[in-house]
Amino acid sequence: MLLALGLGVVLWIGASFFIARTILVASTLEHERDDGLGHAQRMQGLLDLELKRLARTSRDWSAWDETYAFARGDAPSFVEQNIYDDVFANLKLDLMAFIAADGTPRLVRSVDAQTGTARDITPDVARLLAPHGAWLDAHRTNQAMTGFVATERGILAFAAQPIHRSLPDAPGDSAGTQVFGRYLGPEFMDELRGILRLDLSLTLATSPDLAPDLRAALTVAGKDGIAVAPLDLQRLGSYAVLSDLWGAPVAILRALSERSGYLHAREAERSLLLASLAVGLLAGLGLYLFMARRVLQPLRALDTSVAGITRDDGRSRVAVAGYDDEITRLGHSVNAMLDEIDAQHDAREARDAALAASHLKSEYLATLSESVRVPLGGVLGRLTQTLEHDLPPAVRAQLDAAYRAAYGLLAQMNELPDFSRVNAGLKPVEKLPFDLRSLVEDVTALFAARAAQHGLVLACVVDPRLAHRYSGDQHRLRQVLANLLDNALKFSQRGEIVVAARLGGQADGHDSVELIVRDEGIGFAPAGPAAGVQDLARDGEQALARPEQAGIGLAVCKQILTQVGGLLDIDSATGAGSRVRATVRLMRVADAEVTSRFAGRCALLACRAGVGRDVLVEYLEALGIDVTVQAADGLHEAGQIDVVLVDVDVGPAHPAGPGLPVIALVAHGTPPSPVQPGRAVLTRPVQWQALLAALDAVLA
Fold first, then answer.
1. Does 549 score more than 50 pLDDT?
2. Cβ-defined contacts of 396-401 (< 8 Å, 24+)
3. Other Cβ atoms closer than 10 A to 193
4. What is the mean pLDDT of the segment spanning 631-650?
5. Across residues 487-514, what is the average pLDDT?
6. What is the pTM of this model?
7. 440 shares a domain with 579
8. Among 186, 255, 263, 269, residue whose Cα is nearest residue 214
9. Which residues contact 66 (CB under 8 A, 6 or more apart)?
10. Do β-strands 105-111 and 510-519 pair in parallel, antiparallel, or remain unpaired?
11. Which CATH number covers residue 636?
12. Residue 74: which domain range?
């Protein structure tokens, strides 16, 4: 015990020292560095602002036609009329230079530092201002240049601009280069001091007696050209490097600030260390007295209580004291362990009840399947007999859709008895050829009437790049897709529901196929049905016990996809709809059917905006048809049009003129109307084969 107390005192003192060093001193240094970098960034920003001002002034002058004529030698009175002493003062300039395109100086004038009047200087601008004459290339590159350069008089901030005519759309060739500059002399430094309120100095980078801190700042300055470093215990230096056009340092601007915060932090560190030492000794003494009275006696009581628990039925609990210490928490932990054991026992009983409910549901599904298949077979027989007669195309399309929907429903009813075997993983995985497009469109057709009754827009799109036939277990895929679509209809009261089959990728003769169901319904929180994907066992039992809430259940869909090597991904939020994506890897059996009989045709699409229109555009473009989309209330002649697809709910029968082939888009359940020559009817949601048949009917 004494060893533990001593160790606690040492740890307390060490922790206090660490807090003093880390929180006080280290954080103060960090704040100090941030302040120093802020000073450097403000200096750099003011320098950049000066360059931008020079560039803006130079750009304004270079856009004059008079300047263009002067650079070409055609305006001899330009200097007398425009360049005088007040111009330099008003524009805050120390240098104005106009160089012709061949490098001939037209004018090089600077302000005299002693008299403040402008005078012409040596015209060798390239040697005086830039050793390589880089800005003389501005008229060839058509790019403005800004930077700093060291001259005999001091550091010059300059802006070079190519000279063009004033017409922006036809500037023509550059007549030369215009250079405006300002020396960073005492006047400029006073302006910076007034803004920053710091001690500033500007030093040439090539100075032979460069101070060590300036030399170090030139070395550590990064691409942004700023650095910060302490000079001594009282002062902090912030540095901004001025570079020329080639990135070489020209000068360095330094700002000095006081380090008052650091000195206060060091004093507080010493005071805190002494205080923590005194507090640690007093706390150690008090803890020793506390442990002698409060530890040994509670330990004996805990041992007695645990021994009593082992002798009864396990329903007893440890008697704990009202203190907040390790022994009391140990007693609470023992009681929590006993509560967890009781909860596991209750969970096992709940699982047994869920399994019993699952068995009852399987029996109910088998009975329901047998009761529905007999009348459904009669419906299919009557539809088959009717389709054998000679029928109008629109009526045949409606009856064919009804036949396919009834056949898909019969397939679903045949698969209901297999549900219990799917859930148990006993039904073998099939690998037989099937038509993926027909599967997706047939499942969607099963729910078209239900969607129409609820006022929902149901759209189906199958990626034209998908293969014609795949090898896989179509029954399991049909179950998954039907359940996802059933959930979307069940929890949606408005908006659109989109069923899509997309090509995710291709490799080694296999395609990654994505089956997506997206709705604008009520959605669900992460703790809702989406949790079934993360915890299959728990939510699988929940889906079996409450089938009215989630159909087969997302957990079982996950299990089915796992059996066929697929994945289930859910993106949903309460009130924001849902997007469920089932991804499977299928082997290609027959490549996608390619038809070119409609290539080069032009179609006018007039229907309401939405996913249904996007599906039509995608299908028509996949057939090589040039599509023009127009609003129903603004139709006009759109050039050469071969066929018009119009939504009868929002548009006229012949939106682009009489005599043009028309395909009318109608909602599901619309009564068939007499088919007119050059006219076909297409029911939403649009199916690929139905679209091909309609195009053949009107374009034959």
1. no
2. 397/681, 397/682, 397/683, 397/690, 397/693, 397/694, 398/672, 398/683, 401/445, 401/448, 401/683, 401/687, 401/690
3. 13
4. 66
5. 90
6. 0.44
7. yes
8. 255
9. 75, 78, 82
10. unpaired
11. 3.40.50.2300
12. 49-190
